[in-house]
Design a protein that fits this description.
- This protein is mostly beta strands.
- The radius of gyration is 19 Å and the shape is globular.
- It has a single domain, classed as Cupredoxins -  blue copper proteins (Immunoglobulin-like, Sandwich), CATH 2.60.40.420.
- The strands form 3 sheets. The chain has a 4-stranded mixed β-sheet, with no helix packed on it. Strands 3-9-8 form a 3-stranded mixed β-sheet, with no helix packed on it. Strands 5-6 form a two-stranded antiparallel ribbon.
- Residues 22-27 have low confidence and may be disordered.
- The chain has one helix at 3-21, and strands spanning 46-55, 58-64, 67-69, 74-78, 89-92, 97-100, 107-110, 116-121, 128-134.
- The structure holds copper (II) ion.
- Copper (II) ion binds next to loops.
């Protein structure tokens, strides 16, 4: 093959790789499974774990489970060991919540009052994940 053919092939392959990996880490990339749905514990709370780990094609906050029922209290327990730097400053702007996570103080509780996606972010905004609230 001619050199120009190789160059064109190279550009096409790079383009395909770029398209494949250019996800923005939205919750929609995380496949929904039975484990995605929170169960309601005896105390009425839906227990969620928050940690730092692989999310889609990158690393970010990970919620498990990540789908809850509306108007039922949610208890998010953060894994302080996996959260570093500003990732420990967990914000839930829609509910006016802001908390610095330590290993002895790692719980955030709130009751989602409307359906949709609740943004959970770090203080600087690079840590982002979404809690899906359903009817
Ligand atoms: Cu941050």
């Amino acid at each position: 093959m001619k050199t120009s053919t190789y160059i064109i092939l190279f550009i096409v392959v790079i383009g395909l790789i770029w398209v494949y990996y250019s996800g923005d880490g939205n919750a929609s990339e995380v496949p929904v499974t039975a484990d995605s749905y929170a169960t309601i514990a005896e105390d009425g709370y839906q227990n969620i774990q928050l940690r730092y780990g692989k999310s889609g094609y990158s690393f970010n906050y990970v919620l498990s489970p990540n789908i809850v029922k509306v108007n039922q209290p949610v208890r998010i327990t953060a894994d302080a060991n996996s959260l570093r730097g500003c990732y420990r400053y967990v914000q839930i702007p829609a509910y006016g919540l802001s908390k610095f996570i330590t290993s002895s103080d790692s719980v955030i509780e709130f009751t989602p009052t409307k359906t949709g996606e609740v943004v959970i972010t770090c203080s600087m905004g690079m840590g982002v994940t979404y809690l899906t609230v359903e009817e």
